[in-house]
Write a structure and sequence with these properties.
Elements lengths: L5 H16 L6 H7 L5 E6 L2 E7 L3 H9 L2 E8 L3 E5 L19 E5 L4 E5 L9 E8 L11 E7 L2
Antiparallel strand pairs: 1-2, 1-8, 2-7, 3-4, 3-8, 4-6, 5-6, 5-7
Length: 154
């Protein structure tokens, strides 16, 4: 006896294979079933709040595993804010990168701190990009030292 579900299974398998090989060509609803949503975090300090979309790398995933976390954010130099983590993150797979831009969120492995860039900067050894701020750098322009809360974004 023939399996009445065989055509449906074959169609699903074809669509799944297409999603794996060419995700940009798969229709939205099926793409949602075949891809994970990007990791996003929510940051709050003083009266500022913003989200960051994380890159898919071992260091960003390690940071995400620490959440929620309470830190202290402070100004450093003339182009960044920093906060020290309770432990160092994995540096697995770290490599130099280009296209540095204000809004980048990075990890500086030698010191074990996260970095929020609000002005231009240049890559330096030990810097690992974790992601980019969503919606611009305005929240980072508030000067001073503040308690910082980082949670997984809803």
């Amino acid at each position: 006896m023939a399996d009445p579900h065989r055509p449906a299974r074959r169609g699903f398998l074809k669509a799944s294979l297409a999603a794996a090989l060419a995700p940009g060509l798969v229709p939205g609803p099926l793409r949602a079933l075949t891809q994970e949503a990007p990791m996003r975090i929510a940051c709050r300090f003083a009266d500022q709040s913003f989200t960051i979309t994380l890159e898919d790398n071992p260091t960003a995933r390690d940071l995400f595993s620490l959440l929620p976390v309470d830190l202290t954010i402070e100004d450093y130099s003339t182009n960044e804010k920093i906060a020290y983590l309770p432990r160092k993150l994995s540096g697995e797979g770290a490599q130099p990168f280009g296209d540095e831009a204000a809004g980048d969120f990075c990890y500086y492995a030698p010191w074990g701190n996260i970095v929020f860039f609000y002005e231009t900067y240049r890559y330096s050894r030990g810097l690992i990009r974790l992601g980019r701020l969503d919606g611009g750098i305005a929240p980072l322009l508030l000067r001073g030292e503040f308690p910082l809360r980082i949670d997984p974004a809803a």
